[in-house]
Amino acid sequence: MKKKEKKVCRTSIGGQAVLEGVMMRGRTSMATAVRDGEGVIRLEAERLKPNKGIINKIPIVRGAVNFFVSMYTGVKILSRSAEVYGEDDSEPSKFEKWLAKTFKVDIMSVVMFLGVVLGLAFSIGLFFLVPQLLGTLFEKYVTDIPVWRNVFEGVLRIAIFVLYILLTSLLKDMRRTYMYHGAEHKTITCYEKGLPLTVENVRGCRRVHDRCGTTFMFFVMFVSIFVFTIFGAIFPMITEGALRFLAKLALLPIIAGISYELLKLLAKTDSPLVYIFKLPGLLLQKLTTREPTDDMIEVAITSFNKVLKMDADPNEPECSFVCPEKLSLLLKRVKESFAEKGIDESDAEWIVSSVTGIKRSEMSEEKKISASNVEKINALVEERLTGKPLCYCLGNQDFYGFEIKTDNRALIPRPETEELVSEAVKSIKETDRVLDLCTGSGAIAVAVKSLTKATVVASDISADAIALARENFEKNGLDIEAVTGDMFEGVDGKFDVIISNPPYIKSADMENLQTEVKDYEPTLALDGGDDGLKFYRIIAERAQDYLNENGRLYLEIGYDQGDEVRELLDEKYSVEIIKDISGNERIVKAELK
Question: Dihedral angle at the C-alpha atoms of 344, 361, 404, 411, nearest 10 degrees?
């Protein structure tokens, strides 16, 4: 056995190995780190309720209470770690839902409680009932001295415990859990030695620890020999059968309480005088711990560091696991959160589709969404809940079959503008030269260039918008000239077609726009001046200087601006007003006279 490592900074932080992870528990907080099926370390941390009750101050009683609380917490954390690793994604049954609704109980709490009860029942049967039955045979055929029977049963319990550990270590998942147990001990020991918590430092520390639950279990089995012997001496009439078994169960909290105090007392000193009492538990830990891999050590360090921060800083935030989810449950959760904010539920489907690649038409098929994708979806949902437009959250928008990058540098391309493009490309030839005036994201320029192969120039007053447009030209592999300037400034040459979706909202109406439009989309791309016609006047006055003979204008307008724009253009152009699919006047087609 390695030489005992001297503790430089003692800590009360203790832990537990779970499925592919480690839980650490400190004075005021508890954190569990689990490496999920994708290899990502997931972290969950919560603050513990202050335990100021008198029970926590009464020796033996506090140990008994902590014993049962620890069992409950252990089962709960094991269940949570299974969810993270993706092994528990079942939906509550109809009975479970009825039970929760009728009796106002948390189903998970009931499951945890039953888990503790069943765990206790199994342990009691294995470590108390079996030894008692064999103890009866020992007393009958070997010796009827009570103390030797109690010693025999105690040794038998220890033997069963060792055999149980050896058999479970044959299972792959249990072997890995024992490895995480080793990572937990090594991490705590590294901290107590005063070393920085690095993988290299932790790896060099021993994997046994004074405050381990394995040592506690040994103390329980060892102390039970003395408690049962004393009890038998006081009550010699209770020697056999169900009464003896029930008496042992009644004494279990006392045994657990004494064992807890013993563990706590011995952990306070490194004196060689008490080492003999620690040695059996440390030897058993050689079986319940194994040498961990470096990635397991990383998990243990993550959990430990979070507890350190939370214990030191009351403002250190809690956090929750991101777990794999069923598609149906994920959509339901997101749609409900959107409904509370008045957001269309279809946005939930668009977000899920964007992240996972699942088509909206396939949303009814049950699929499992990975934790990493759930994390991305959650982040987008949080953005959308602030009122940020869906397209800005997703970062793209489909426009006429082309993917357009979108952000707050430019207006989000609308379906009405697709109708503008559809009308314009009917007459644009490959040999034509086209100017996209007020290009914004460059969506019109991308569609026109892709559909007609014409020469396209895109212009906008906003340098940010032009930068975004250039990104979209490159993204779609298109050779389009981009010009920064106020309307026609910086534009050279003449064109066969000028197409534009200029700002046309009246300044007074800007405050009445939807919040997500008013607060997120650029005002520069929306405000059309006092009457909304500012930019149509500029086009009416100057466009002919940039048009070839028989050149054409294609302009998007507000639903109530047709007559006014016609009046502006009538002197120099033959004007046609075209309605959109909703029946609103939306497109102006004007040809030089």
Answer: -20
